[in-house]
Amino acid sequence: AAKAVVEAIRIDLKPRDIVTRKSIENAVAVIMATGGSTNAVLHFLAIAHCAGVEWTIDDFERVRKKVPVICDLKPSGKYLAVDLHRAGGIPQVMKTLLAAGLLHGDCMTITGKTVAENLADIPDVPRADQDVIRPITNPMYAQGHLAILKGNLSPEGAVAKITGLKNPKITGPARVFDDEQSALAAIMARKISAGDVMVLRYLGPKGGPGMPEMLAPTGALIGQGLGESVGLITDGRFSGGTWGMVVGHVAPEAFAGGTIALVHEGDSITIDATTLTLQLNVPDEEIARRRAQWKAPAPRYTRGVMAKFSMNAASASLGGVLDRFD
Question: Which residues contact 66 (CB under 8 A, 6 or more apart)?
Fold first, then answer.
């Protein structure tokens, strides 16, 4: 890494020469092709903001529709990252996408060469002696796995992994929790049943603060065999290892007065990965009445770095960045 930085300085190659709209689109295409983490949405929104690149949450959906999942990787597939590496790794994934016209080959990289130049010696198609990386003509899924769900619960968007699910839709009663610990306790006490939709809120950029990942609750659901029969929505994040009927980054977040703050225990909620909707099945008039009565809770921190973070953090739909003042 140090050698790469020194060489970049020598040839006057700067971060903004590399981080462009086209290169971010390349990165998101690779994430879709490999079945990467939901966190990528948050990270690339923030990276684009820092680089002054125009990129919105809706751009992920645009890329998802045209890039197939070609890697059979956990958590929804069979293989591990080390298997991907042995099968040709990210260079082979990128060359497969490039040959299919799904990457911008003219993007500059940290090597001082373009994407196409870096991949010049990589075969256009994956090796036949492995099945971790599939040919573009035989993908795991015809479209990407990271979907942006919208509806009255997430007008700014929410993020879900929608591949590998036997049933892409669930409607059920809300089980509401205002922190991760109480949600985990309920799961461990066997108080969550098939058909429930768990709501974990006040865990967004402002409310967390900092958007903690909900790996423990989602892992506990899978451990109890409820991974596909229980929905879970949160304004927090997930681990890359998370799998199931789960939706994160719900925006606006509860602490900012988003609709997720207005959900009552027992309300009907629909998660639909086919129509990309996240809906609270409550009349608009009732939602408006609840909104008028809602009061923001006291912040978890009132001094120090965490208080500053909570005060300045933007919505997850904008990358949760700290310097967006528009």
Answer: 102, 143
- Indicate the residue type of 64: R
Dump pLDDT digits (tens) for 275-309: 999 999 999 999 999 999 999 999 999 999 999 99
What DSSP letter does each residue of 58-98 carry, written as one string? HHHHHHHHH--B-B-BTTTSSB-HHHHHHTTHHHHHHHHHH
CA distance 80 to 88: 13
Asked if 317 is an active-site residue, the reply is: no
Q: What is d(CA 133, CA 127) in angstroms, rounded to the nearest whole number?
A: 8
Q: Which DSSP letter does residue 108 get?
A: B
Secondary structure in 3-state letters for 26-43: HHHHHHHHHCCCCHHHHH
Across the beta sheet with 246-251, what order do the strands follow?
146-149, 157-161, 246-251, 231-234, 197-200, 169-177, 268-272, 277-280
**Strand-pair category, 231-234 with 246-251:** parallel
**Which residue in the block uniquely carries the two structure tokens 């309920």?**
186
Active-site residue (options: 37, 154, 229, 239): 239
pLDDT tens sequence across 54-79: 999 999 999 999 999 999 998 878 99
The position carrying tokens 């892409």 is: 168
Alpha-carbon distance of 278 to 271, in angstroms, equals 5
